[in-house]
User: What shape does this take?
Amino acid sequence: MRAAALALPAPRHQPPGTSAEATVLYDPQSDSFLAAKNADRHLPMASTTKIMTALVVLERCDLSATVTVPREAVGVEGSSIYLYEGEKISVRTLLYALLLSSANDAATALALHTAGSVPAFAALMNERAASLGLSNTHFTNPHGLHDEDHFTTAGDLALITAAAMRNELFAEIVQTPRYTAPQSGTEATRLFLNHNRLLRTCEGVVGVKTGFTRASGRCLVSAAVRNGLLLIAVTLNDGNDWRDHAALYDWAYSEYEAFTPQTVSISLPVIGGEASEVTVTAAGAVALTLPVDHGEITATAELPHFLYAGFAAGDRLGTLVYRMDGRVIAILPLIAANGVEKNRMPRTFFEKIQDLFQ
Assistant: This one.
């Protein structure tokens, strides 16, 4: 369970500027944008579209299933692994081709396998976007080739990426430098190379996806982890994207850090129960994003002095409030680690007589 957290304090220094038409630096842990420029502007996103393509496939398909490549997935414009009609290839291999080689034919094959048609798959992409609460994104295809009705925003794309990064296989694929797959019916293999240069040049980068069309310009979504803090950077139409992402990460990790305070365990007296006390714990752990020079963190348990019996394990009994320099920064429910039933009433003389005849 996530803590209910308030907005992050302002940084000591402002984030670096970028050459992008739109930029965000997103912290999923605090659900905060650490930096933003034109974050809600509708823009084409080229092959970064494939982040959502992969998410839909991962959530709906058997990864070991075999796809028989249809004619519609052969010779698709743009990046390709040169699938041929009738070729048999696994969903898993197509996902590596999608995310590493940015293969448009792989994107189309996955869409047809998942939904039967490209429009039907695009509807699933839009449905998934809506489930994330995104209202400024619309998909018409699984690959990102230009279409006036195919767009997103830097902010929405960061949220899509955060959802995708929670999928273990997605996170594994996008940080894989290279992947070799057998080609069915032959002794040949295909080599998929990751185009994300930041994996080699920027500390802590663990993905995610590049993109380019003439209409969109250079698009880049990346993710980095340093000292346990995951951040996601998005730039759309940015001629200096590698440099800009590295600068954003260096700035952010000099300003913020992940902080995990100790959990609590409190014993409370119980009246009228079959046990005389209950252990109260926090419902989950708090993971906070804080300024690197943050002040003292305190935790205050808001609980009654005692409890009356008649509650179950998991019932909310109070609240744990975290403060930094007196300012509330996170709130967690406090719950019963175990239930305590009320004492049963003493058996009456009549009930005892009944027992003799049973």
About this structure: The chain has two domains: 4-256, 265-336. The mean pLDDT is 93. Residues 4-256 form a domain with the Beta-lactamase fold (CATH 3.40.710.10).
